[in-house]
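User: Before I run my own analysis I want an independent prediction to cross-check against. Here's the chain; please return only the structure tokens and, at the end, one sentence I can use as a sanity check.
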Amino acid sequence: MLIEMAVANFRSIRDEQRLSLVAGPGKELAATNTFDAPTMEAARPFTLLRSAAIYGPNAAGKSNLLKAFGTMRRIVLTSATELKLLPVVPFRFDSQTIAQPSTFEVVVLIAGVRYQYGFQATAERIFGEWLFAFPKGRSQRWFERSLVEHSGEESFQFGDKLIGDKDVWRRATRSNALLLSTAVQLNSRQLKPLFDWFHNTLEFSGIHLSGLLTSLDCYLEGHNSRVIEFLRAADFAISTVRIDESSFDSSLDAIRSAEPLKQPDLRHWKVYVGHRSGDQQTVELELSDESEGTQKMFALAGPAMEALTRGHVLFVDELHDNLHPLLVRYLVGLFHSPETNPKGAQLIFTTHETAILSQDVFRRDQIWFCERDPEQATRLFPLTDFSPRKGLENIERSYLSGRYGALPYLKRLSEAFAA
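Assistant: Structure tokens:
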């Protein structure tokens, strides 16, 4: 379960931006939009949000927030085994940040234990890495890693609560690899739950994010009926889904380990969807010939079903894209319903769809805004900064009228069309 995430100096994000999924003190929609996550820290559990919606104009950096998390996941999963440059891109509109490392951090809850994990990195090397655990409410430093200024040497500090051959981990960790990843490769059982959280718990879908692969994975694992039922429930007239497995060379393992930020080309995957004709015959069409909305919903089907079934965290970029507003509301409602989301799955998405920007759909602490400042840097801020009136304020109207900012600044084009 995700409690909080933070990123700094990554793409359009210069200063640290932090997104929290901790529910505020408000009691509105508590039975549907929040859930209690058991923890070993105290008798009282964490109350977390089931979703967070991020609004803002185009080119404000909404997608970069999601890309940051996908990039963090990729580095955790691959840095110990790949010798490539790390996929880190700093903020380029400031001469001082170009050479500085990017920062990624998460606070997560795994089997009742809270972990705070993060690292700083450039494309060439890791500059810092830290992990703190809170098994009983008090902070335990499991390890801290830093780059010694001037000498270029690395310093590793381990806490006595972390068990294992730490000297071997330290020697085996390359300058461009994470200690977490390396230690897990060397059979650290204590660190494996955190590594597995990145590997197994995160789902991605949307523009520039790969959800199609998860839907294909569901099919290849024998869950074709789940994908079809998901599409039917959303009023897509689809009766069958078929994949020509001879049309691609990738094995199931290759599909599962695919880069989360890479959008597959449908031309390389022969996916067919069947429709019932008037005489009750099944007519198949290639998925690439279907509407953009059908393709989007198919790509969402696998990640959404996996998240809801297993209690995962799903990131969706541009949730509204090519979907009717009622479909967007339907998808959000799946995560807000304890009936369809009994395991505390969380949905974090960007959107322009203001039809759901309502206190009937969201709590005030679930709505976030993103805008670009005059120096081209992304700024993320919550609706709660504006203290909207509980149950009374029309959030959509206030947003579109400019009360919260995070709107495109439209200039007159009359001069451009002047004779």
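Sanity check: Residues 292-310 form the longest helix (19 residues).
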